[in-house]
Design a protein that fits this description.
Residues 1096-1111 have a biased composition (Polar residues). Residues 26-97, 1058-1111, 1120-1139, 1153-1221 are annotated as: Disordered. This is Cohesin subunit SA. InterPro entries: ARM-like, ARM-type_fold, Cohesin_Scc3/SA, HEAT_SCC3-SA, SCD, STAG. This protein has 1221 residues and is mainly alpha-helical. Among the domains are: 97-312, no CATH class; 718-826, no CATH class; 940-952 and 970-1038 and 1045-1054, no CATH class. It has a two-stranded antiparallel ribbon. A hairpin with a 3-residue loop joins strand 1 (458-461) and strand 2 (465-468). The radius of gyration is 41 Å and the shape is flat.
Length: 1221
């Protein structure tokens, strides 16, 4: 009888050559999507081995050793097999837990633990081997053990089946996946034990056919089990065992080669010097090493073909990741045997795996191979076949996988010249602008090695220090400019600088070369190149000074290390010392170009301004102030003015010794602008006509003052009165140009805010507060008048300023101990609120066709307009949340949630969340109000006929579904809110009855279809009582229809407790599992029977979680509830359930159609018992008792309140006010 290992070695294997690999195998079809367990009975030619010759030579010798048990592996254990018990009762149990507990606790040295086991094995081989087997069984999480009797009398398949039946998998966790601190280190200890076991046995038991062959056979069988824990743990053990065997084989190969060299050297000696005894000894040693190597190769071949070939495509991604990771280690450590195309193909196929971790292991394994230049020659064929896949993985949806793919391509670029084509590289270049910083930096490193590094020239200084020559630095910046400008991939060089910072930071921090390029007269740079170079300069300075990436780029780091902070501080000092003398020169050269001056003025944000004092650089400060004044007077561009005002604000710090000098320069500049403003304003107010130059000059002066007023307190220049007079004239006569009105509004706004700042800091008099409020109210009236202006820019500016100032002067301003500001609190009147809402409808919620306005616009302009509309909507939503506007006005926003979700979805969702946090009940009523408004508008436009078939009505249903999802998973907490929403919705649907004598349905009846979207949020008992409430309401309809109304049928269908099984599933989607319900018939709802109560209670039980494996178990019924199997459910039972629910609905509709009174007994004992039983069913569920306090109060009200007390059960149909109609 042959052993399983021998059968695995001899079962129809065919060798595989590198040439047949790529000719006969359909590479593209071997995707990792085929993650099935595979068939282990037959192996294809693709699953060959490199150890065929040694296997054939070794088969005869291995057969003479101690035979293995004939244990064919059972791949699919029978489900009906009975549990085998009693085998170990008559014998002493093997110490199954000793070894497992020692490895789990890691209390002793692993080598000592293995040595103890070896001693016990030498004393008693059977018990020692059983202890080792039971260790692996316990490591799988199985509590069963293998006894000596089982080992002697049962085959491996029977043992595995017995262990499968004993496997307790209630939790789905096993040692490799179990949570908790005691299990976190188990996998490492387990792998270390396997490694140490092979290491300690490499000179003894490793070549004894009994223990290792039987262990390999058992692990192979377990790895083919249907139980995930067996498969996962045994695969990990087998792969780690294989890894250890590879290391032993490598050592044997080295020893054999060394022995061969010694033998050849001894044999080549002359007869007089040759030692026959030594020659014979070396020959015997070489022969023994050869035999050992063949033994090891046989084991490796069995493990590879018995475990790896099937498990690398396992359905479990963790198992696939283990296989690929270990295969990579084999290739790296024993490249002479494993770094062949017959093994590389598995990594190539698995590059297409669906799971992130598996793809990551593939890339990391390839990185180790491509990093060794000596191995790249063997990877040429593999690279040619899988290069396209590796390049495409740069765009992987998982960022860490994409990062590893880029790093792999960097190694290919460095170590395999000419492999990556220009097209391959061009597909990687755009990634330098990715939002993820790790991915962008990896792509930046690729760009650096591809384009920049080959052009560098270095020279040696003093024999030690290597410093780049100025020519090399200039070459670097010219290449950087060329790439950024010519590629046209992005508009902001800051992201390119950030991507290159980690690999080329030293070059980017060469501010001397940057500034010399900018200040050269014969630099031969175009206008675009100069602007780009200035942007690169500012970006590198900002990166060195602040140390964080640009806006919008995500990084996982929380902070800088002390070393990085030290480097950052040093760089800040260096750049400040270098740029302070050169900044006035740069401003003087580019002062005429607003696009270049604005970023240069931003450099002051990143300076260490104390250096002006400590290094005695005040003369350069004077030059800078002169250039700043010239720039501010010359330009009217908002970006330049804002940058200049902010730069002056940074210098106007009273703590600086030069503050007096800067303050004087500021006063001079403001005096100059104010005098010019007063002069030009008088001309405007007195003259009936101004030419364009005068209007432009006045508007530019006011823009400069507005920019200064934003950063500096200009109260002493008293700009409020002239600006207010100007705006008043614009409102009265309309003769003021638009260019002047916009900065005038801003100046008045800043004047009010600076006055408020002065009054908030000290005890202000009542007169001062009233004066400020009068100015604020007057300004609000001016803005309200501007809302109806013909110019949209004036309208939007007025809306933004008005929304901001209303929030500032809202009731929130008296919080924090500032009650003395109460006279300043201002709430808008109803007319102003109405105008704000109307403005929002006209300027924010507009269709794409309305935005074009008759001519095609560029994409960037449309994006800017979208940002402006989002800003307007955010201002209106803030007015709602701060209590400035009535919360009911939020319905104008919420009703556009679904239609404009792509543009404003995040803003509306945040507003809805905040509104629910403030008042859940009121927010629910607003949602219902939004649906009512939309329905009424649609009804007025199209009429009641065929309303529910219109596309607009379908959009309303989608909106209602989105509103229902916004309630979240807190079903019990929102119970009263959802019931209230249904009640109000039913009232609205029947609020208008059809005309007398008409057979038509009520015009609002289709609103019930919108309510049906909220039905999944109801409990069963709530649905029952809402059905009764709906029927009582429908009885008030004077004429009965000839056939049931479709909207009523749809709504009743959503309230059917049999059809809808989404309770306990807050997402509102039906469960996929089908349930067999107790009882074969349903009585009418007023007939409260025991079977009806039982079905309701069973439906309220949370669904049983799905099993995580196919372990054979005896099914245990859960309180009489039978689970129908996923694949074996009876079609007739499912059909019967559908017919049952249809019968119940038809009975309800027929009862309503015939006008039969529902529950004639009224609120009698039966009705109360029904409600009590339903509430007791809720109490039986522990989560309902303890989840929310509101649920407990609900139950207490239902059980203890008397019929005469107010605030009784809201679900009692006898308490619903029918007379409201």
């Amino acid at each position: 009888m042959s052993s399983p290992l021998q059968r695995a070695l001899g079962g129809g294997q065919r060798s595989l050559s590198a040439s047949s690999l790529y000719v006969n195998v359909p590479w593209d079809d071997r995707d990792s999507d085929q993650t099935s367990e595979g068939d282990s009975d037959s192996l294809s030619a693709d699953e060959g081995s490199d150890f065929e010759d040694s296997r054939r030579r070794n088969m005869k010798k291995r057969a003479a050793k101690r035979p293995l048990k004939t244990t064919p592996v059972a791949k699919h254990p029978k489900k009906g097999s009975q549990m085998i018990r009693g085998h170990s009762q008559k014998e002493s149990e093997p110490p199954a837990s000793d070894l497992f507990d020692a490895v789990k606790g890691a209390k002793s040295d692993m080598q000592s633990l293995v040595d103890e086991w070896l001693e016990s094995y030498k004393q008693n081989q059977d018990s020692g081997f059983l202890e080792l087997i039971n260790f692996f069984i316990r490591s799988c999480g199985c509590k069963g053990t293998v006894t000596l009797e089982m080992f002697k009398k049962m085959s491996n398949s029977e043992i595995i089946r017995h262990l499968t039946e004993q496997f307790n998998e209630d939790s789905g966790d096993y040692p490799l996946t179990a949570p908790g601190p005691s299990w976190k280190k188990f996998q490492g200890s387990f792998c270390e034990f396997v490694r140490t076991l092979v290491y300690q046995c490499q000179y003894s038991l490793l070549y004894d056919g009994f223990p290792m062959d039987n262990l390999i056979s058992l692990l192979t069988g377990l790895s083919d089990s249907q139980v995930r824990a067996f498969r996962h743990t045994s695969t990990l053990a087998a792969m780690k065992l294989m890894t250890s065997l590879v290391r032993v084989a490598l050592q044997l190969s080295l020893h054999k080669d060394n022995s061969q060299r010694q033998y050849e050297a001894e044999r080549n000696k002359g007869p007089a010097q040759r030692a026959p005894e030594r020659l014979e000894s070396l020959w015997e040693k070489r022969k023994e090493l050869q035999e050992h190597q063949e033994e090891i190769e046989g084991m490796m071949n069995a493990l590879f073909r018995g475990v790896f070939v099937h498990r690398y495509r396992d359905v479990l991604p963790e198992i696939r990741a283990i296989c690929i990771e270990e295969l990579g280690s084999w290739m790296q450590s024993y490249s002479s045997s494993f770094l062949t195309d017959s093994y590389l193909k598995y990594i190539g196929w698995t590059l297409h795996d669906k799971h992130r971790e598996v793809r990551l292991k593939c890339l990391k394994a390839l990185k180790e191979l491509y990093s060794n230049r000596d191995l790249t020659a063997r990877l040429e064929l593999f690279t040619s076949r899988f290069k396209d896949r590796m390049v495409s993985m740069v765009m992987d949806r998982e960022y860490d996988v994409a990062v590893e793919a880029v790093r792999l391509l960097i190694l290919i670029l460095k170590n395999m010249e000419g492999v990556l084509t220009d097209a391959d590289c061009e597909s990687i270049y755009p990634v330098v602008y990715a939002s993820n910083r790790a991915l962008a930096c990896a792509a930046g490193e690729f760009l650096y090695w591809k384009l920049f590094y080959p052009e560098y020239e270095t020279r040696t200084v003093s024999g030690r220090e290597r410093r780049r020559s100025p020519h090399a630095q200039r070459t670097f910046f010219h290449l950087l400019l060329s790439f950024f400008v010519e590629s046209e991939l992005h508009d902001h060089a800051a992201y390119l600088v950030d991507s290159l910072w980690d690999c080329a930071g030293s070059q980017l921090k060469d501010w001397e070369s940057l500034t010399s390029l900018l200040l050269e007269k014969d630099q031969n740079l175009g206008d675009v190149q100069e602007s780009t170079l200035i942007e690169i300069l500012v970006s590198s300075v900002r990166q060195a000074s602040e140390g964080h990436p640009p806006v919008g780029r995500v990084t996982g780091r929380k902070g800088l290390t002390p070393k990085e902070r030290k480097i950052q501080a040093d760089d800040k000092v260096k750049l400040t010392e270098h740029l302070i003398p050169l900044l006035p020169q740069l401003l003087a050269k580019f002062s005429a170009d607003a696009e270049k001056v604005a970023p240069l003025l931003q450099l002051l944000n990143y300076f260490d301004l104390n250096i002006y004092c400590t290094r005695r650089l005040e003369k350069h400060l004077e030059l800078f102030l002169q250039q700043l004044q010239e720039v501010m007077v010359k330009h009217a561009d908002p970006a330049v003015l804002e940058a200049g005002a902010h730069a002056l604000y940074l210098l106007c710090n009273p703590e600086f010794t030069f503050f007096g000098r800067v303050d004087f320069a500021r006063s001079q500049l403001v005096d100059l602008l104010t005098d010019r403003f007063q002069q030009e304003l008088e001309e405007l107010l007195q003259s009936s006509f101004l030419d364009e130059d005068e209007v432009y000059s006045l508007a530019a002066t006011m823009k400069r003052l507005s920019a200064f007023y934003n950063a500096h307190d200009l109260t002493r220049w008293e700009l409020y009165e002239p600006c207010y007079r100007l705006l008043q004239k614009a409102v009265d006569t309309g003769a003021v140009p638009r260019q002047v009105i916009l900065p005038a509004l801003t100046l008045v706004y800043f004047s009010i805010l600076w006055t408020l700042t002065h009054l908030s800091g000290s005890g202000a008099s009542q007169k001062q507060l009233l004066t400020l409020k009068g100015r604020m109210v007057a300004f609000c009236e001016l803005c309200q008048s501007c809302l109806s202006d013909v110019d949209p820019e004036i309208q939007e500016q007025a809306f933004v300023l008005l929304s901001d100032i209303l929030i500032i002067f809202s009731p929130q301003m008296i919080m924090g101990g500032r009650d003395f500001l109460r006279p300043l609190v201002f709430l808008p009147e109803a007319t102003l609120q109405s105008e704000l809402a109307s403005f929002l409808m006209d300027h924010v919620f507009i269709q794409p066709g309305e935005m074009v306005k008759g001519h095609s616009q560029e994409d960037h302009l449309q994006i800017e307009q979208l940002h402006q509309r989002r800003r307007l909507l955010a201002g209106f939503c803030k007015l709602l949340l701060f209590g400035v506007l009535e919360m009911d006005a939020a319905s104008d926003v919420f009703k556009h949630y679904n239609k404009f979700y792509s543009d404003y979805g995040d803003i509306i969702k945040e507003t809805l969340t905040r509104a629910r946090q403030m008042d859940r009940s009121h927010c629910s009523r607003i949602l219902l109000l939004s649906l009512k408004q939309l329905y009424t508008e649609l009804l007025q436009e199209h009429g009641p006929q065929g309303l529910n078939e219109l596309p607009a009505f379908i959009e309303m249903r989608d909106l209602a579904r989105r509103f229902a999802l916004s309630f979240g998973p807190q079903q019990l907490q929102n119970r009263d809110l959802v019931v209230m929403l249904h009640k109000e919705g039913i009232k609205f649907s029947l609020s208008e009855l059809p005309p007398s004598g008409s057979s038509g349905q009520p015009p609002n009846l289709a609103f019930l279809e919108l309510l049906s979207e909220f039905s999944p949020r109801l409990f069963h008992q709530d649905k029952q009582l809402l059905l009764s409430y709906l029927e009582k309401c429908l009885q008030r309809v004077s004429q009965a229809p000839s056939h049931p109304w479709g909207s009523v049928t749809t709504y009743c269908h959503s309230l059917s407790p049999v059809e809808n099984t989404t309770e306990g599933s807050p997402q509102g989607y039906p469960h996929s599992k089908k349930r067999r319900l107790e009882g074969s018939s349903r009585q009418h709802r007023e007939d409260i029977s025991s079977s009806h109560e039982e079905s309701l209670q069973l439906n309220s039980i949370p669904p049983t979680p799905t099993l995580t494996s196919t372990a054979v178990k005896n099914r245990q019924p859960l309180e009489g509830l039978e689970e129908m199997e996923e694949e074996g459910s009876s079609e007739s039972e499912f059909t019967q359930r559908q017919l049952l629910s249809g019968t119940q609905r038809s009975r309800f509709l027929s009862a309503w159609h015939s006008q039969t009174p529902f529950n004639p007994s009224g609120p009698g004992l039966g009705n109360q018992l029904t409600r009590l039983s339903l509430m007791e069913e809720d109490e039986d569920r522990g989560e309902v008792e303890t989840q929310h306090e509101s649920g407990e109060e609900w139950q207490d009200l239902d059980k203890h309140s008397s019929p005469h007390e107010p605030g009784l059960d809201l679900l009692d149909s006898t308490e619903l006010n029918i007379e409201d109609f």
